[in-house]
Design brief:
This protein has a single domain, classed as Cytidine Deaminase, domain 2 (3-Layer(aba) Sandwich), CATH 3.40.140. Strand 4, helix 3 and strand 5 form a beta-alpha-beta unit. By secondary structure, it is of the alpha/beta class. Strands 7-6-5-4-2-3-1-8 form an eight-stranded mixed β-sheet. Helix content is 21%, strand content 38%.
Length: 154
């Protein structure tokens, strides 16, 4: 389960609109409360760290976070006393569901927020929704992750 305050959701939604028609991507930072059983972790997102999409050849339907950007995100989280909870990215003119490409490049035990950003006919995009997903331990599929939005959590 992931808790996302309105201010955090507004930031990643704005990133999706700013980068449209390319996919945006970034890191979710916050704190983790491990659950007593597998799959019951509670994540409290308190910040995002936008990352440049390193995938330039297919930026409209793919994203890549370089190892260097990942290490910088880990360092930023440590410096703020936070943890890397997962990632977010946009799907321009598509649904807020992870693709097979996303599954092939994801890791279990992290949150993956996917945003739908729809074109407005004037070259701009508007974020129309998002959902959070977790990759199964056997990497076979994503499963929906409960997402609690709004307010101050944790």
């Amino acid at each position: 389960m992931i808790h996302v305050p309105d201010a955090v959701a507004a930031r990643f939604a704005a990133e999706g609109e700013r980068t449209y028609p390319a996919e945006c991507c970034g890191v979710l930072l916050g704190r983790l409360e491990p659950g007593a059983t597998e799959g019951c972790d509670r994540r409290y997102a308190s910040a995002i760290l936008p990352v440049d999409n390193a995938r330039t050849d297919r930026a409209g339907d793919r994203f890549v976070i370089t190892p260097e950007a990942y290490l910088k995100a880990e360092a930023a989280a440590d410096a703020q006393g936070l943890e890397l909870l997962g990632f977010y990215h946009s799907h321009p003119d598509d649904q807020a569901r992870p693709s097979d490409y996303d599954r092939d490049h994801a890791w279990p035990n992290l949150s993956y927020i996917v945003m739908a950003v729809q074109g407005q006919g004037d070259g701009t995009g508007r974020t129309t929704g998002w959902a959070s997903w977790e990759l199964a331990a056997d990497r076979s599929a994503f499963r929906p992750e409960p997402l609690i939005e709004g307010g101050l959590h944790g």
